């Protein structure tokens, strides 16, 4: 891979990380519970999966979570347990 491609992927990962932080804050305010970043997708590999699959949000390869709403629903299901 060229260095420019690596830079592009790094920028994408940074963007996804910021999006994840915003989702974490929103979920915390909605549910009153605290969620650490990447509670569902806990590695950069998951971010790369999201990029490769064209996911609109955090991609979690193990569970197939590939959209913001699905991600939020998964979190809320965990809260309900």
Question: Can you put this structure into words, describing what you see?
Answer:
The chain has 81 residues and is mainly alpha-helical. The chain has one domain (3-80). Helices cover 64% and strands 0% of the residues. Helix 1 (3-31) packs across helix 2. The model is unreliable at 39-45 and 48-65 (pLDDT under 50).
Q: How large a portion of the residues is in β-strands, by DSSP E? A: under 5%
Q: What integer is the average pLDDT?
A: 58
Shape, per Cα inertia axes: elongated
Fraction in helix: 55-70%
Gist?
This protein has one domain.
Helix and strand layout, with pairings?
Blueprint: H1 3-31, H2 44-53, H3 68-80
Please describe the structure with a list of short key phrases separated by commas or semicolons.
single chain; 81 residues; 3 helices; 64% helix; mainly alpha
